[in-house]
Amino acid sequence: MVITLQLDSSTPLYEQLRNQIVIGIATGELKPEEKLPTVRQLADDLGINTMTVNKAYALLKQEGYIVIDRRHGAKVRIPTLPASSDPSPQIEEQLQLIIAQATIQGVDQSRFQAICSQIFAKMVYRLP
Amino acid sequence: MVITLQLDSSTPLYEQLRNQIVIGIATGELKPEEKLPTVRQLADDLGINTMTVNKAYALLKQEGYIVIDRRHGAKVRIPTLPASSDPSPQIEEQLQLIIAQATIQGVDQSRFQAICSQIFAKMVYRLP
Amino acid sequence: MVITLQLDSSTPLYEQLRNQIVIGIATGELKPEEKLPTVRQLADDLGINTMTVNKAYALLKQEGYIVIDRRHGAKVRIPTLPASSDPSPQIEEQLQLIIAQATIQGVDQSRFQAICSQIFAKMVYRLP
Amino acid sequence: MVITLQLDSSTPLYEQLRNQIVIGIATGELKPEEKLPTVRQLADDLGINTMTVNKAYALLKQEGYIVIDRRHGAKVRIPTLPASSDPSPQIEEQLQLIIAQATIQGVDQSRFQAICSQIFAKMVYRLP
DNA sequence: GTGGTCTAGACCACC
DNA sequence: GTGGTCTAGACCACA
Questions:
Q1: B79-92 pLDDT tens trace
Q2: Which SMART domains match (chains A, B, C, D) (predicted)?
Q3: Taking the CA atoms of chain C, what radius of gyration do you get in angstroms?
Q4: C19 is near strand E: CB distance < 7 Å
Q5: Interchain CB distance below 8 Å, C8 and B71
Q6: Residue D50 CA to F8 C1' — how many Å?
């Protein structure tokens, strides 16, 4: 899986890292139970500090995306949630902001939905 | 229009302010040509510094959401662009992350689309 | 002569006004000895305060572009300077900044000179 | 690189700072990838507030002149755009005003072009 | 150690 | 009256 960081972005490196791993999990590039690189290795590959990778992993663990096993390192968590639940209010809030911006930019609902469909098509994450 | 800031949030105050005003414009709570509160007034109401409001206004101006007229203060910009159908790549990226998270949280596409519809229903912003 | 003001510009109205009149003089839209509109009339036409027009006229007078006669109002000044003098250091400084920006934007010297020629072609101001 | 601010100028300090840095980049005094002083350092050297320097840096970043890397501070951006031959309309407008003023001051085209050449001779910025 | 954010309070230009 | 600028000093997140 390819990870690219923008060093000059306003979003912190650890957050960019976290975001890309989350997307990787959702798109199936990282499968459940799959082992993530070690902190040191990933930091080396990306040319960043181990602390930064550490922070990203800790965040992902705290959010429940991965599990960290002292013996085997970090692994993608096996899905446990049932389907069709509601999104967290946090996500709904972010979605509202995005839709507001899109609306003002002149994107109508049907176009927006089409784009969502395209993105969903790439998500192959399967629930239990 | 009611604006509420979370002082303990990681998103800066001026950005929260900017976001809420953008949503206000999209939902029609703030209509085109409508005058925004003065920086002093808003700063007072929210109990924050004028420079913070100033920064939010400057950002909104730079992004083209509002217009600052030396004579009458800040106003919501009248829409000029025709429906441009495609969202900015930046928005698409954010949307991908949101959908990834929703997917892992167990929200399926139809549920997601339903939520989008609900949000779109509140957007009454009309293009020229 | 058509004057258009941007109410939301960062350059003050009186300065925009002054700039457009200076350009009008240089392009010959306003000829030497030609009478400018009265302060009140111009203010009315543009929908701005008379003080603003007043300030622009005062500035133009101070800079030597116009003369203000109490009986006949404001007139374009008859040129007195000999040709081939050097530009004011102020102008040279501004020019340096513009060329710096153009260079970084990827405009090379020949292209720049061509644009200058185009602009000069429109200047029909004749010296004594 | 020497930076001198005029405290009594009508152009804001942060803009003077921005202008001088832009010129520095174009003249090669600041080379691509070169690190700019830290905001604190520069503020100290110039005897102004850190926020003022901050604002200048933010502006330069927004305009694409510099890049701010969380790890190493601000750096001159490596040129990426190929020679685009045409200047922005904004620059063309400024140029028109300058030429208008020069014309009225009695500077003819050949003299003006000569001055441009002199200035261009100092610009050593090279595109990719 | 870096930039980013925020405050309280001040002054100024513009209209 | 408005927004814009600047200061001095503080705290925080990031790396």
A1: 887 766 788 999 99
A2: HTH_GNTR
A3: 17
A4: no
A5: no
A6: 10
User: Which of B103, B78, B121, B128 is closest to A109 using CA atoms?
Assistant: B121
Q: Which domain holds residue C68?
A: 13-76
D104, D116, D125 ranked by CB distance to C25: nearest: D104
State the best of D67, D68, D70 to mutate against chain A, taking most chain A CBs within 10 Å.
D70
Report how far apart the first and last C-alpha atoms of chain B are (Å, whole number).
Answer: 24
User: Do A69 and A30 share a domain, yes or no?
Assistant: yes
Q: Of C38, C23, C25, give the one whose Cα is nearest residue C77.
A: C25
Are D69 and D25 in a shared domain?
Answer: yes
* Residues of A in Cβ contact (< 8 Å) with D61: 8
- Shared domain check, A93 and A55: no
Which residues, in sequence order, are bridge partners of residue C66?
C76
Per-residue pLDDT band for B125 (boundaries 50, 70, 90) equals: confident
Residues B71 and B99 in one domain: no
Given a cut of 70, is residue A128 above it in pLDDT? no
In a domain, A70, yes or no: yes
Q: Are C100 and D25 in contact (CB under 8 A)?
A: yes
Rounded to 10°, the helix B13-27/B50-62 angle is 50
Enumerate residue ranges in chain D where pLDDT < 50: none
Q: What pLDDT is recorded for position D12?
A: 96
